[in-house]
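dumping these here so i dont lose them again. two proteins, back to back, each one seq then C-alpha cells. dont judge the mess
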Amino acid sequence: MYVTTFYSFKGGVGRTMALVNVATQLAQMGRRVLIVDFDLEAPGLDTLAIPRSTKPTPGIVDFVSEYLTTGQAPDAADFIYEADWVGRQGGRLFVMPAGRNDELYHDRFSHIDWAALYEHHDGFILFEDLKEQWRQLVAPDYVLIDSRTGHTDVGGICTRHLPDSVVILFFPNEQNLRGLTKVVRDIRSEATPPRNKKIELHFVMSNIPDLDDEDLILANRLKDFRAALSIDEPLTIHRYDSLSLLNQTIFTRERPRSRLAREYVELTDRVVGANTEDREGALRFLRSAQRLRTRKGPGAVDQQITDIISKHSRDGEVLHAAATIRMREGRVEEAISLLNESIESGYASPDAFLQRADSLRILGKPEDASLDALKVLEASEADSYQLEHAVRILRATRPSLLPQVLPPLVTRAAKIRNPGSFAARLNWSTDELAIGREILSMVLTDSRVSPNERESARSQLAMALIGLGEFEQAAELLDSVAGGPADIADMFNHAMAVWGSTGEVPKTLFERVRELDLRDADTNGAPNYLQCLALASWATGNIGEAETLSHRARQAIVRRPNPEFSCWRYLTVPATEFVSDLDSFGHLVKHGRPLPTVMGSRGYRPLVGR
C-alpha cells in the first residue's frame, strides 16, 4: 500500500481534478486504488464524474467523531464505498469521503479539535489503525489523499503523518512560494530522527498558461522555485480551455488523447515510478538507478535496490534488471545469483541468458557461458542483436560449434527481426560469410523489407561475396545500382570486386574512391576507413599518401585494440591480425607483393609505370 497526498498551498490549481484523474488512470492500469477526501472544509470528491454510492456514506469527519465519542476506532468498512466500472484489468476504485453530506456535517467538523486529537486522544494511533484497516479491507495498491490547502493541523496529518509521497501542485507566484517554503521544509524534516521517514516529493506547476515566455517570466519564477524548494524536475499541467471542465470530466478515461490527459498520465507515471512496491515502479527505479545515484547518493540507491530485490524476489524481470546493475558495479557473482533466480522464476529471455553468459565468461567458465549462448540461438524470439551477441560469445568460448549452429538460422531468417543486421555481422570466417550470404540474399527478395534495408543488404551482400572470392557476382550486384555506386564504401567494394574478377587493379575506380573522400580522412579516424583509403592511394600511385594513411591506421588500432574489419581479408579480425595485415600492405607498397589475402591466388598485373 503506497499513500500519496495531493496538496496545494492555495486553491485554483486543479488539485482534486488531478487526483481523480491519476486515480482513474491507476485503476485503468489494473491497480486497486482508494481515494480519501481530507479536504474537510470544502469537500468535493463526490462532485467529480466518478460513480457515487447509492446511499449516503459517512467519511473522515464521521469516523473521527465516532472515535471521540466512543473511544474506539470504528470499523472503516462503514465509511468506504466502491466506485463501480472505473477500473480495467482487475483495477478497482474505492472512495472514503469527507463525511456524510447533510446539514449537520459542518457542525460535526467544527467540533473536532485536531491538535487535541493528537495531544490527548492518541490521534497518531487512530490514523495508524485507519491505515491498517485500509490495508485489510481494500488491500489497495495506492491510497490517494486529497488534502486541504494552507497551514493546518489536518494538512500536517495529510502531508507528514500518512503519506509515502506528496504531490505538491502550485501556481508559480510569490504567494505560493512563500507558503510552500515552510510546508516543504516540514515534510523534509520527517526524514530526520526520531521519525526517519523519507517522503518523496513531486512538484507540479499547474494551471500554467500555454503562451510564449518571450520575457522569461515563467522561466525566472521557476528558477526561484527551484532554488528555494530544491526542485529537480517539476512537471507541468497547462491551463486547458474546455467546457468539459464544467462537468468535471475525467480526462484520462473520457478523453485519453487530449493534452490534459497526457499530462495527468505523466503525473501518474511519476507517482508509480517512486513506488518500488509496484513492479512497474521498481523496474523504472532500476532502469534509472545510475542517474539517481547522483541525486540521492549511492548508499540510498543501493538500499532501495536491496529492498526491491526482497519485495520482488519471484519476479524474474525485476531480478534481471537488478542483475544488470550488479554487473555494471562489477559484482559478478551476485549478478549470476540474481540471473539464476530470474530464469528459475520463468524469465527465460534471450537477454537473461546473454547476461548470464557474459557473467560466466568473466568468472572464467567458458563452457557454461557457451551453453547459455546456445539457448539464445535456439530461442525463436531472439532478435538480430541478441543472435549476434550469442555468436560473439561462442566465437570466444567454443568456436568449433559455429559451423553446426549457424546453418539452421538461414531457415529462420524470415522470422528474425532485422535479419540483415544480423547477417552483416557474420564476417569472422568464410563459414560465417557463407551463412550471411544466404540470409542477405533472402532479405533482397523479401517484399516486406524497406528500401533502406534492401539497400543496406545489397551492400553487405556484395562484401560477403568479395570475402568468399565471388568477385564477378559482387561486381554485377554493385553495377546494378542505378548510376553506379555513389557511396564511398560501395565504390571501394566495387573497385575490389573488379580487381578480383579481372586480375587488374582498376585505377580509375580507386581514384573515384579518393574523390569521394570529401573529409580527406581527417575526420574519420577508424582503422578500417584509413586502411581502405591507404589501399586506394597505393592503387592510384600515391605512395606517400598510402604510407601515411597506413601509419595512421596502425596508430588508431594500437590506441583502441578492438576487433576490426580488414579490407585485406574482408573479414573482421583481432587487433593483432589487423596490424599484421598493415605489415603485409607495407610489403605490397615497397615490393609489389603480396596481394591482399582476399585475392587468393588470382593473377595480378602490375600498374603501368611500376
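---- next one ----
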Amino acid sequence: MVVLGLLTGVSYQSGLDYYKNINEQFMKLVPKGKLMPPNPELVMVSVDCDEYAAMLVGKDWAGVARYLAKGVGRLVRAEVDVLVICSNTAHISVPLVRELHPDLPVLHIADATAKAIRDKGLKRVGLLGTEPTMREDYLKAQLRLHGIETIVPDSDADLSQIFQFIMDELGFGEFKESTRAFFVEQVHKLAARGAEGVIMGCTEIELLLRQADTPDVPLFASAELHIEAASRVAAGLCAPDAYAPAGGDLAAAPKHGAPPPQSFDAAAVRRLLPVGKAIDAAARAMRSLSDGSGAMPVRSVMRLPIEQFGILANMPACLGGYAACKTQTVFPANAGTALSAHQGATLLFSADDGRLLSISDAHEVTLRRTAAASAVATRALSRDAPSVLALLGTGPQALAHFEAIRAVRTITAVHVWGRNAARAAAVAKAIGGCGGEGSGGVPALVFESAQACVAEADIVCTLTSATVPVLEGAWLKRGAHVNAVGACTPAHRELDTAAVRGARLFVDTRDACLREPGDLVVPLREGELTEEHLLGEVGAVLSGALPGRTTDDEITLFKSVGIALEDLTAAVAIREAAMAS
C-alpha cells in the first residue's frame, strides 16, 4: 500500500476535508477487508495556521516556502511514499521541497486539476484563490505545462477582497450569502474576459460555491480533484506521475516563489554541521571526485600583490543538483591573532536554475570539512586499534582534528607540539588537561620537540604553516598513519622527503596535489620522488577501487590540500539541517 504524507494545518477546514474524503473515497476503491473496511495509510503533519497566515498577510512568500518545507521534512523522516500538500497556496513550497527532497514524489494539485480541465477540452480558465495563488506563478506555470492558460481578476481591489474573505470568514468556517454573491460575480467577470471555466483554487472557496451557483460557467474544485487523485494513488490504481504533464514538471517552470539565500555564520555552521555529519559529507565528496559523479577544477589561486604573504582562492564544484564556490583569503600571518588565517564565504547554488541558495562562513566550513576529511582518511588507512594521536600545530585545526579523529578511532592519549609553548598548552588543556583527565576525557601531553611528540604516535596530524619540514620520516613508528594537512602551496612544506617516500601515499585530489603542496612538489622537482609513488585518491579507497593499508607495519600517508566538493557537500548538509530544524 502507498503511504501518503499529508501536509495540513494551513487551515482547519482544508485538513479536515482531505482526511475525511481520502478515507471515504479509498474505501469505495478498494475491496472490503476481511474484518473491517480498508483505510489508506496516511501520515499527517500539521503546521501552525496562525504562523503561516502571518507570513501570507505580510506577503512573505519565501518565508511561507521555508516554513512549509520544515513540515515536509518531518514527513520525509516518517518515510512517506508520496507527498500531498492539502492546499493550493501551500504549493508555493513545491520548488523548495523538490530541491531538498528530489526523491519524494509530489502529487501536485495543479496536475490533478489540469486533467479535469483537459477532459472538458478547455484551454483558458480563470483562477480564484489566496493572493499568492493568484498573484504568483507557481500554479499558473504548472498549468501552462499542460497547455492551459490562466487568468485572474484584473483589479487589485478584487484580489485583496478575495483574500480578505478567505482569511476573515471562510477560513473560520463562516459562509455568508453576501460573500457567495461576491464570488459568483468574480466568476462571471472572468468568463466575460474569455475564461472557459474557473478553478476554485482554495478549499474554502469550494465549500462556499457550488456548480449550481454558476450553471453557465464550469467550476473546477481543485482540492476535490486533488483528493480524488490522492485516493487513487493511495489505492495503488495509478502512480503520481500519471497526472504529471507530458513535457515536464514544476522543475522546468519558473520558481517565482523560491526563497532568498539563507545565511549561516560561524555559530550556525558549528550547530548545523556536527562532527558526524561533517565526516559523512566529506566522505561523499571524496567518493564523488574519484568516481566522476562530482566535478571540480583545480582551484584558482592569486598571490596578492602586497607586502605580507596573502592569497585569494576560488574553489568551484558541482555535484547532483548543486553547484558551489568557496572564495576565501589565506593569510598565514593571522595565526595566533583574533583573525582566522582563512576568511571568506561558501556559496551554494541550485544546479537546476542557478539560484543562490545559501552563504556559509568559509572559515568554519573549511575548519570542519578539513578535519572531517582527515577523519575519513584515518578510518580508511589507519590501523583499527586504540591509538595515540599526535598533533603538530596549535591553530584551530588542532582541536578540530582531535574531535574528528576520535569520532572514527579510539584515542587513548593525545600528544601536542607547537612552536609556541603557551598555545600548545592551551590546546592540551582544551583536549583534556596536561597529563590528566579533563572535559575531553583523554589525557593530553605537551612535548618540547616534534620528534618526541610523534615517537609513540599511531596517528599523526601535521597542521602547521611551516615552510620547512617539521616531521621527518625517521621519527615515525612502524604502522603509523599521517594526515598531512598544513602545506598547500609549493612554498610550504611540513614533511621531509623520507616521510613521503617511506609511506603508502594517498591524496584527496591527485591533480592538485601534484602541483600545489611543497610536501610533494619539492621532492618531485628534485627528482627524489616520482608521480607513480602517489597511489591514488582516498575516494577510490572508499569505493573499493583501490586498496588502502595492506599490512599493520607499513606507514600510510594522506596528503590533503582541500577539495571544493567537500565545501559543497558541507554546505548542502548545513542547509538541509537548517530546513529540517
